[in-house]
Amino acid sequence: MGFLEALQDPKISEIVLLGDVVLDPRGSGERDPILITRNVTITSPPGTPRSSLPALDFSFQQDEATIGVNVTVTFKSVMLKNMRKGSGLGMDFFGGLQGSTIVCIDVPRWRYMCAAADAALASANSYPRPSDLPGKNLVRLQNEYHRGTWYNSSLHYVSFALHVMSDNSESDAWLPGYAMVLRNSTRICQTYISPECESVKSLDQCQVDGVDAWLAAMDDDTQDESWKQKVAAGVASGVGAALVLAAGAFVWRRRRLRRRRMAWENEAADPATFGG
């Protein structure tokens, strides 16, 4: 069983990432989204250090899942990557029906390109907390350590909430979409928008163009092997028994997402395993 199947299965209330998972982008946006009809948590094994959390890479997929009415999807102690090309906190993979919520707790949110830290902090602090999401928005800058790298002056959401509408725009007013709630979650950035780009384009367009250029650079077949990421695609479900749904591996050959489908090689998966 893959991640999408586990996410859709109403019998599964918890998905545990045993290693990094990269979602296959082939066909993204061309199929009907799955409907999530119950609360579900995506997390890491207990005791995993924050500095080495497993990553869930969304591969910039869009409209793959709809969160049902009054349903909450929680990401806890996992790293999220490549959720959207443009600016903002929304996750393009998801849409939402009335009362739906995405909660991120203890989550590093990795992005290839970001707006400058000071500007992002000022923008975050300008958002009023939606009246239907009690609490107070609190955002600050802090240094974040992850997988051997320090990300200095990272935007840290101590507590933050806003609404993401169905078109992935953001507001403090409710419109069809989902609520986004962040607790102890941090934006970590590989690089930042250049002042030169910012002077002639919008921040959002600079980010989209920067990500597209990054993906195009990885499209070169002569690139170094370090661009190829081997992924441990294991997930386990918490439904009362210790069930290992799959423990396999994929080799992701990164390709330009808009112009070429990615090449995937599925390696043999271990059989489902019961017991501790």
Describe this structure in words.
The structure is a single chain. The protein is mainly β. The protein has one domain (about 5-275). About 10% of the residues lie in helices and about 40% in strands. The protein has helices at about 5-10, 115-125, 195-200, 205-215, and strands spanning about 15, 20, 35, 40-45, 55, 65, 70-75, 80, 95, 100-105, 110-115, 140-145, 150-165, 170, 175-190, 230, 235-240, 240-245, 250-255, 265, 275. The strands form three sheets. It has a 15-stranded mixed beta sheet that branches. A hairpin with a 2-residue loop joins strand 12 and strand 13. The longest helix is centred in the last third of the chain and has 15 residues, at about 205-215. The chain is globular. It starts with a helix and ends with a strand. Keywords: Membrane, Transmembrane, Transmembrane helix.
Care to give the gist of this entry?
This protein is mainly beta. It has four helices and 21 strands.
Q: Outline the low-pLDDT stretches.
A: 221-276
The counted number of beta strands is 21
Query: Can you tell me the overall shape?
Result: globular
Structural class: mainly beta
> What distance lies between the first and last C-alpha atoms, to the nearest angstrom?
19 Å
Largest sheet properties: 15 strands, mixed
The count of helical stretches stands at 4
Radius of gyration: 18 Å
* SSE ordering: HEEEEEEEEEEEHEEEEHHEEEEEE
Q: How much of the residues is beta strand, in percent? A: 35-45%
Average predicted confidence as pLDDT = 78
Helix proportion range: 10-25%
Keywords: Membrane, Transmembrane, Transmembrane helix
